[in-house]
């Protein structure tokens, strides 16, 4: 027999160390331990078996890895912390003795610790450092907005934070790394692609932050210490990889000028950014490289022209792109500004938009605003918009009052868009050559990857919903706007003129989806009865179910029922609708078999053991909860659309009453065609359905008596539902 | 040197003069010997050592007190004595005739009477009037008589007063150094010139430093800092020589990223995400940790109207806390298809025939039907009810054929499984009636009656009385009446139809009794009971008896009179039991909703325990010929299973659920009370209530 093992002397018990033990071992105070942990990135672990580690007790206790703590014993920062402590005592003594000169001298000689070795140790490769940039940037962005003289944080630290964030943003801007932007109620989220991994950070809205009492700023300051170092080193790496000088110079010492206040230079000493030119450097190549590449491209183009003309649209686009580039180099004037069309319907350079949406790659996606010149009015978030617009190759100006460094003045005729957030004051001049849009347009364009129509974004208009580019919630619900953009993306931008129709279709599809879901539920419970219905064609208008469904669709679309049916017949080839009706027909046929399968499944569940049954129950519970959430949202949406449609109908009715306006309204949309007779028609079509439903219900009831009791019980809710519908 | 203040007590000068003279005369070496009344201790210089002494006697008061010299003299620890032995134990000199040595090294003789015994000492003390105030000075070996002053000091010390009688602790302070600053200089000398011209030496020293700095020998603090920074700049390419594919430290768990915002968080979300007022209230009522999201979605008409988010700092802080305080652990997320958890079973279609639908309803009983049984030919169904009747039904038509009325509710009714006879065993209260229902063919009836006619002639050794019914009862078909002492709950037939067993759970050792019709005898095979017997069952092939108590099932060999098996179903209360027709498998239903399938070859633990009923299982039964079994429960359902038993030992029985009938309504939390299969067809019967009436149902 082997030696009897003693408890707690091997295995998990020796791998972990409790916090108090760690503090005793390191002989430091809790505050210093905390500081060390934050800096070194040491965190408590949850042991897999708490009892084994905690001497048989399950009391809550914090455990660290013993190795982590042992490494701390040799940490230079720990020694420095001790030095600082003893030095502080000396200073205190001097102050106590009122030896001010000595205290001052000592103060100047206070030992400092550096964190570079820790950065190197925690992030052995640059990619790992990028992984942790999320928190670092968000933290720095927050501290950059804290009040300078609140006494909570040193003004120099705040300045440094602002500088580091701006430097990073500058890099993102130059390298064209920005991917997504999202304006939330908390702040503005940016997502950039740094070295292949996404970095998402949030910048608070530009207001003074409330500093709550229950926040321990000492902890935050320790984190800040680390993050400042991390972001500094990361910035250095990013800048030097682009062959740029780090740190970039600042034009003036105040940071108010934001991005415009920086002078970025290449190592050769050439100014990198001069107004719009920054947009030309599409990818991470230095200036000389760019020139060489252009020459090569030119040669290739010549070669292509000698061989023959490409009919390929892509080639043309490329050419145009190239032309635009050249033009820019020559004149610094974007191409699309030359011919501004009607202000309300103007969509600047749809060619560009098409090009971008079809061939969206990392290299040219940030040329989105290449052909636009923006002017930011007062009351728009200047820093954010400047960053975003410049990242996507736009040229941007702002009034003197918002800060220096504007690229264009307000009176500049080249301006294509003016970003406004308040309707114009009566004295202001309105330029016909510009589109006056709200700031959301910029963000939506970026997330859509193309220049979206400015309709709906003008001042005074009800803005479309601003959706998160990071996806919806966990319930899996997709709002119709997102579905719409997905459809548009799949269709491509070739059908620009039909965009509105597509929109309507999408909404309809959404509503129909909801109906289909309802249908499905009913189908699940009905089984044999469906066989009867099978005989009828799937598009048989007598079928009360379908009539109801069609009515619902019509209602949601804001049309009368007959109108809707006509439209439906006419547009039978409509993609989404056809699909849904087809599936509905199929469903009817397979429902009996499905019911059989469902019953078999229910029976098979009897044989599950307890563990499996619980797990299954949990999964099902989660799924159902999600579904319920999604359904709730969808229902709310449908209800909202119905009320909206009703409202629209009422207003249109009022318009029809005034005959002069009627034709104009009718021309606008088919939905507007509305007469009192048409309004009555749904009621007429409804009546047969009402008459039929009891008749339809009776045989079912009769049959249920014969069929198994389980079936009869299951049928009851379905039939009652039908009765309700009728 | 501090001067003693002149005391207020100033006596006449003449007396003082006299005192001075006295002091001058006194010497210390005489102190102990010649002047016992002298109370002042004076040092060699004639200075008074103890101040207070002079104040003891009023006549010794003086105007100018001698000054105290703060030297060794003021310390009484080295008060001079003649004896120079030092601080050694005095008993060293106890045997000698001297007590020590003087300063010249000469012996100091022991004084007379130093070695007095106690009696002498006592006598001396009685003689000496000063004995009460004398103390032995051991070093000198003689008595010292304390003076009045000494006594007074001792008294004052005892009463915690200042020893010196005339000491005034509240004397007015004397400012030795004035607190007032003088405005005028003490000296009228003019300021010297050197105070107005720069120091040359200092200048020289400064110039030395300046020169050193100029020549670069010495660095200013700024320069030092710059140099330091140059040596190691604030930021540099820290990853210059690093491996781009370097991994994290071993066992490092990176912190999970903050979740990305969804549509809800937008400043202008789609309308469906805006919560209603009730939802906002609900959200507010929740604990902050339980909230699905930490903000209320709100729609802003334009970007201008979006305000600062007041919890921003707090959220960042919480994130910081999470990063360094939260214990981290890698959790594997279960990514499992829920459908894969459901067992894969053969299709029901392959397992036909089995009952699928309700076909016949037997109506007529007025109260709850407790029991029923199907005749071995499958033509007849007999049922017993709480309305004290037993009725025979035609299975196919649902027509009631016969009915008997009893005085008490019918507990159990069983049809003899041997088709050669036609006998019904009916348990009513304490009696068991054997009845010939007279619904079978004539031959069978005759054979049955003949059997019963023969039994009365024989000698019966049994304890229980086999009574012959009255003529009127015989006409109704009653053949034998067995009377028990306790309530009979169950009657079970042996397959051959000659034996049957009854259970009276309350009868203790006689709970189980086995009766043989042909010999008209009754046996109680067990002397004592192991608990409340719930059910008994005969083995279909062997002479075994299964006895189910509340928790266990015991299997006895009736011939060897031996316990063969004890089955442990692990349930709380067994309600029913059935043995598979092949005899190796047992089915158990329990009041705690479990159904256990035992494979007796395999183990004494259940092969499978199923828990699908929502309330107590009332009965579970096998089909006699087909691989079917069924269970019924108080939740009103009747479940039919395919239960195939294979001959080969290496194949486990196959259990497949086939059908779940919502057979009866639940009334007073009682659902389906009994179920039984048809002996030949794949049909199953159940009893319970339906639409308020108490009926039997046939599912075919």
TrEMBL record, chain A:
<feature type="domain" description="BRCT">
    <location>
        <begin position="364"/>
        <end position="459"/>
    </location>
</feature>
<keyword id="KW-0690">Ribosome biogenesis</keyword>
<feature type="region of interest" description="Disordered">
    <location>
        <begin position="311"/>
        <end position="333"/>
    </location>
</feature>
<feature type="region of interest" description="Disordered">
    <location>
        <begin position="620"/>
        <end position="726"/>
    </location>
</feature>
<feature type="compositionally biased region" description="Acidic residues">
    <location>
        <begin position="315"/>
        <end position="331"/>
    </location>
</feature>
<dbReference type="GO" id="GO:0003723">
    <property type="term" value="F:RNA binding"/>
</dbReference>
<feature type="compositionally biased region" description="Basic and acidic residues">
    <location>
        <begin position="621"/>
        <end position="653"/>
    </location>
</feature>
<dbReference type="GO" id="GO:0043021">
    <property type="term" value="F:ribonucleoprotein complex binding"/>
</dbReference>
<keyword id="KW-0539">Nucleus</keyword>
<dbReference type="GO" id="GO:0005654">
    <property type="term" value="C:nucleoplasm"/>
</dbReference>
<comment type="subunit">
    <text>Component of the NOP7 complex, composed of ERB1, NOP7 and YTM1. Within the NOP7 complex ERB1 appears to interact directly with NOP7 and YTM1. The NOP7 complex also associates with the 66S pre-ribosome.</text>
</comment>
<keyword id="KW-0698">rRNA processing</keyword>
<dbReference type="GO" id="GO:0030687">
    <property type="term" value="C:preribosome, large subunit precursor"/>
</dbReference>
<feature type="region of interest" description="Disordered">
    <location>
        <begin position="278"/>
        <end position="298"/>
    </location>
</feature>
<dbReference type="InterPro" id="IPR010613">
    <property type="entry name" value="PES"/>
</dbReference>
<feature type="compositionally biased region" description="Low complexity">
    <location>
        <begin position="654"/>
        <end position="708"/>
    </location>
</feature>
<dbReference type="Pfam" id="PF06732">
    <property type="entry name" value="Pescadillo_N"/>
</dbReference>
<feature type="compositionally biased region" description="Basic and acidic residues">
    <location>
        <begin position="565"/>
        <end position="585"/>
    </location>
</feature>
<feature type="compositionally biased region" description="Polar residues">
    <location>
        <begin position="709"/>
        <end position="719"/>
    </location>
</feature>
<comment type="similarity">
    <text>Belongs to the pescadillo family.</text>
</comment>
<dbReference type="GO" id="GO:0000466">
    <property type="term" value="P:maturation of 5.8S rRNA from tricistronic rRNA transcript (SSU-rRNA, 5.8S rRNA, LSU-rRNA)"/>
</dbReference>
<dbReference type="InterPro" id="IPR036420">
    <property type="entry name" value="BRCT_dom_sf"/>
</dbReference>
UniProtKB/TrEMBL annotation, chain B:
<keyword id="KW-0690">Ribosome biogenesis</keyword>
<dbReference type="Pfam" id="PF08145">
    <property type="entry name" value="BOP1NT"/>
</dbReference>
<comment type="subunit">
    <text>Component of the NOP7 complex, composed of ERB1, NOP7 and YTM1. Within the NOP7 complex ERB1 appears to interact directly with NOP7 and YTM1. The NOP7 complex also associates with the 66S pre-ribosome.</text>
</comment>
<dbReference type="GO" id="GO:0000466">
    <property type="term" value="P:maturation of 5.8S rRNA from tricistronic rRNA transcript (SSU-rRNA, 5.8S rRNA, LSU-rRNA)"/>
</dbReference>
<dbReference type="GO" id="GO:0043021">
    <property type="term" value="F:ribonucleoprotein complex binding"/>
</dbReference>
<dbReference type="GO" id="GO:0005654">
    <property type="term" value="C:nucleoplasm"/>
</dbReference>
<keyword id="KW-0677">Repeat</keyword>
<dbReference type="InterPro" id="IPR028598">
    <property type="entry name" value="BOP1/Erb1"/>
</dbReference>
<dbReference type="InterPro" id="IPR019775">
    <property type="entry name" value="WD40_repeat_CS"/>
</dbReference>
<keyword id="KW-0698">rRNA processing</keyword>
<keyword id="KW-0853">WD repeat</keyword>
<dbReference type="InterPro" id="IPR036322">
    <property type="entry name" value="WD40_repeat_dom_sf"/>
</dbReference>
<comment type="function">
    <text>Component of the NOP7 complex, which is required for maturation of the 25S and 5.8S ribosomal RNAs and formation of the 60S ribosome.</text>
</comment>
<dbReference type="InterPro" id="IPR015943">
    <property type="entry name" value="WD40/YVTN_repeat-like_dom_sf"/>
</dbReference>
<feature type="compositionally biased region" description="Basic and acidic residues">
    <location>
        <begin position="7"/>
        <end position="23"/>
    </location>
</feature>
<keyword id="KW-0539">Nucleus</keyword>
<protein>
    <recommendedName>
        <fullName>Ribosome biogenesis protein ERB1</fullName>
    </recommendedName>
</protein>
<dbReference type="GO" id="GO:0000463">
    <property type="term" value="P:maturation of LSU-rRNA from tricistronic rRNA transcript (SSU-rRNA, 5.8S rRNA, LSU-rRNA)"/>
</dbReference>
<feature type="repeat" description="WD">
    <location>
        <begin position="362"/>
        <end position="403"/>
    </location>
</feature>
<feature type="region of interest" description="Disordered">
    <location>
        <begin position="1"/>
        <end position="43"/>
    </location>
</feature>
<dbReference type="InterPro" id="IPR001680">
    <property type="entry name" value="WD40_rpt"/>
</dbReference>
<dbReference type="GO" id="GO:0030687">
    <property type="term" value="C:preribosome, large subunit precursor"/>
</dbReference>
């Amino acid at each position: 027999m082997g030696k009897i093992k003693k408890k707690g002397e091997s295995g998990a018990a020796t791998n972990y160390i409790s916090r108090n033990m760690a503090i005793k071992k390191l002989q430091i105070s809790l505050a210093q331990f905390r500081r060390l942990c934050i800096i070194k990135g040491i965190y408590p672990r949850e042991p897999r078996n708490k009892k084994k580690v905690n001497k048989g007790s399950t009391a809550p206790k914090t455990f660290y890895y013993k190795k982590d703590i042992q490494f701390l014993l040799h940490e230079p920062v720990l020694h420095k912390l001790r030095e600082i402590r003893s030095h502080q005592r000396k200073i205190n003594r001097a102050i106590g003795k009122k030896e001010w000169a000595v205290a001052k001298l000592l103060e100047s000689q206070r030992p400092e610790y550096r964190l570079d070795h820790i950065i190197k140790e925690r992030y052995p490769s640059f990619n790992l450092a990028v992984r942790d940039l999320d928190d670092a940037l968000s933290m720095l962005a927050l501290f950059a907005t804290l009040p300078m003289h609140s006494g909570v944080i040193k003004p120099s630290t705040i300045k440094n934070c602002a500088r580091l964030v701006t430097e990073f943003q500058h890099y993102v801007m130059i390298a064209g790394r920005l991917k997504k932007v999202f304006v939330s109620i908390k702040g503005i989220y940016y997502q950039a692609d740094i070295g292949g991994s996404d970095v998402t950070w949030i910048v608070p809205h530009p207001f003074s932050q409330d500093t709550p009492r229950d926040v321990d700023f000492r902890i935050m300051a320790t984190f800040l210490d680390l993050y400042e170092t991390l972001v500094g080193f990361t910035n250095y790496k990013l800048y030097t990889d682009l062959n740029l000088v780090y740190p970039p110079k600042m034009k003036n010492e105040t940071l108010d000028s934001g991005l415009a206040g920086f002078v970025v230079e290449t190592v050769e000493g050439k100014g990198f950014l001069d107004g719009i030119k920054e947009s030309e450097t599409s990818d991470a190549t230095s200036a000389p490289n760019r020139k060489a590449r252009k020459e090569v491209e030119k040669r290739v183009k010549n070669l292509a022209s000698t061989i023959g003309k490409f009919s390929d649209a892509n080639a043309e686009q490329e050419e145009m792109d190239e032309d635009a580039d050249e033009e820019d180099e020559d004149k610094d004037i974007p191409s699309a500004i030359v011919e501004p069309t009607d202000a309300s319907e103007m969509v600047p350079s749809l060619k560009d938009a098409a090009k971008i949406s079809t061939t969206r790659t990392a290299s040219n996606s940030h040329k989105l605003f290449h052909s636009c010149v923006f002017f930011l009015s007062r009351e728009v978030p200047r820093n954010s918009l400047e960053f975003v617009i410049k990242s996507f190759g736009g040229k941007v100006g702002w009034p003197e009052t918002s800060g220096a460094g504007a690229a264009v003045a307000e009176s500049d005729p080249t301006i294509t868009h003016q970003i406004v957030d308040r309707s114009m004051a009566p004295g202001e001049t309105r330029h016909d050559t510009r589109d006056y849009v709200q700031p959301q347009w910029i963000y939506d364009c970026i997330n859509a990857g193309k220049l979206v129509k400015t309709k709906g974004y003008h001042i005074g208009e009800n803005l479309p919903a601003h959706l998160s580019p990071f996806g919806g919630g966990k319930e899996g619900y997709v709002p119709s706007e997102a579905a719409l953009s997905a459809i548009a993306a799949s269709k491509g931008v070739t059908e620009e003129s039909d965009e509105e129709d597509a929109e309507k279709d999408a909404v309809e599809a959404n509503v129909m989806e909801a109906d289909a879901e309802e249908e499905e539920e009913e189908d699940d419970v009905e089984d044999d009865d469906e066989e009867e219905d099978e005989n009828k064609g799937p598009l048989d208008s007598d079928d009360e179910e379908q009539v109801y469904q069609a009515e619902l669709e019509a209602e949601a679309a804001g049309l009368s029922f007959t109108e809707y049916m006509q439209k439906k017949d006419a547009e039978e080839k409509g993609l989404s609708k056809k699909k849904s009706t087809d599936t509905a027909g199929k469903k009817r046929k397979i429902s009996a078999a499905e019911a059989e399968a469902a019953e078999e499944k229910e029976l098979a569940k009897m044989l599950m053991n307890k563990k499996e049954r619980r797990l299954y129950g949990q999964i099902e519970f989660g799924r159902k909860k999600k579904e319920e959430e999604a359904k709730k949202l969808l229902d709310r949406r449908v209800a909202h659309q119905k009320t909206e449609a009703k409202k629209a109908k009422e207003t249109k009715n009022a318009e029809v009453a005034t005959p002069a306006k009627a034709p104009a309204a009718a021309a606008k949309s088919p939905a507007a065609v509305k007469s009192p007779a048409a309004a009555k028609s749904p009621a007429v079509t409804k009546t047969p359905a009402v008459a039929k439903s009891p008749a339809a219900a009776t045989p079912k009831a009769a049959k249920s008596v014969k069929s198994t009791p389980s079936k009869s019980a299951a049928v009851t809710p379905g039939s009652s539902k039908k009765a309700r519908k009728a | 040197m501090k001067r003693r203040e002149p005391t207020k007590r100033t006596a006449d000068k003449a007396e003082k003069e006299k005192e001075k003279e006295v002091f001058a005369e006194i010497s210390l070496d005489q102190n102990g010997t010649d002047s016992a009344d002298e109370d002042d201790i004076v040092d060699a210089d004639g200075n008074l050592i103890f101040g207070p002494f002079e104040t003891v006697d009023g006549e010794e008061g003086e105007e100018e007190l001698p000054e105290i010299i703060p030297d060794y003299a003021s310390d009484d620890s080295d008060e001079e004595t003649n004896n120079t032995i030092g601080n050694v134990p005095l008993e060293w000199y106890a045997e000698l005739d001297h007590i020590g040595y003087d300063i010249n090294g000469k012996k100091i003789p022991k004084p007379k009477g130093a070695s007095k015994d106690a009696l002498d000492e006592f006598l001396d003390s009685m003689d000496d009037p000063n004995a009460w105030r004398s103390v032995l000075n051991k070093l000198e070996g003689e008595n010292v008589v304390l003076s009045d002053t000494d006594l007074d000091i001792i008294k004052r010390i005892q009463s915690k007063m200042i020893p010196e009688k005339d000491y005034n602790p509240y004397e007015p302070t004397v400012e030795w150094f004035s607190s007032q600053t003088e405005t005028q200089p003490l000296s009228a000398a003019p300021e010297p010139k050197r105070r107005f011209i720069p120091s040359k030496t200092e200048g020289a020293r400064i110039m030395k430093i300046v020169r050193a700095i100029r020549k670069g020998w010495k660095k200013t603090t700024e320069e030092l800092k710059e140099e330091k920074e140059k040596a190691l700049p604030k930021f540099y390419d820290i990853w210059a020589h690093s491996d781009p594919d370097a991994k994290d430290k071993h066992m490092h768990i990176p912190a999970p990223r903050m979740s990305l915002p969804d549509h809800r968080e937008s400043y202008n979300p789609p309308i469906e995400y805006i919560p209603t007022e009730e939802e906002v209230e609900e959200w507010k009522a929740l604990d902050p940790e339980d909230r699905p999201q930490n903000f209320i979605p709100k729609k802003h008409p334009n970007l201008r109207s979006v305000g600062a988010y007041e919890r921003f700092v707090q959220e960042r802080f919480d994130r910081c806390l999470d990063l360094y305080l939260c214990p981290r652990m890698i959790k594997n997320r279960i990514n499992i298809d829920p459908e894969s958890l459901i067992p894969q079973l053969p299709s029901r279609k392959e397992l036909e025939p089995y009952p699928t639908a309700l076909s016949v309803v037997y109506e007529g009983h007025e109260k709850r039907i407790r029991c029923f049984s199907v005749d071995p030919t499958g033509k007849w169904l007999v049922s017993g009810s709480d309305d004290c009747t037993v009725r025979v039904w035609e299975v196919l038509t649902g027509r009631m054929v016969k009915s008997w009325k009893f005085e008490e509710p019918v507990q159990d009714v069983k049809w003899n499984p041997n088709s050669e006879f036609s006998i019904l065993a009916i348990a009513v209260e304490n009696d068991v009636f054997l009845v010939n229902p007279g619904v079978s063919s004539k031959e069978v009836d005759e054979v049955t009656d003949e059997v019963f006619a023969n039994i009365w002639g024989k000698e019966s050794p049994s304890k229980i009385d086999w009574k012959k019914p009255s003529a009127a009862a015989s006409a109704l078909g009653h053949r034998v009446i067995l009377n028990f002492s306790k309530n009979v709950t169950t009657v079970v037939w042996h397959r051959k139809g000659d034996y049957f067993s009854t259970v009276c759970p309350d009868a203790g050792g006689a709970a189980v009794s086995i009766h043989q019709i042909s010999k008209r005898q009754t046996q109680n095979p067990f002397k004592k009971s192991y608990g409340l017997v719930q059910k008994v069952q005969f083995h279909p092939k062997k002479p075994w008896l299964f006895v189910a108590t509340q928790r266990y099932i015991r299997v006895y060999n009736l011939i060897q009179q031996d316990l063969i098996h004890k089955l442990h179903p692990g349930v709380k209360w067994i309600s029913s039991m059935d043995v598979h027709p092949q005899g190796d498998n047992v089915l158990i239903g329990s009041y705690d909703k479990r159904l256990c399938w035992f494979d007796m070859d395999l183990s004494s633990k259940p092969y499978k325990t199923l828990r699908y009923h929502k309330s107590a299982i009332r009965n579970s039964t096998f089909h006699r010929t087909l691989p079917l079994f069924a269970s019924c429960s108080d939740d009103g359902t009747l479940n039919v299973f395919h239960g195939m038993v294979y001959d080969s030992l290496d194949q486990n029985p196959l259990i497949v659920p086939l059908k779940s009938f919502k057979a009866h309504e639940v009334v007073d939390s009682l659902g389906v009370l009994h179920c039984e299969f048809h002996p030949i067809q794949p049909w199953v019967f159940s009893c319970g209530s339906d639409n308020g009436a108490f009926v039997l149902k046939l599912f075919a």
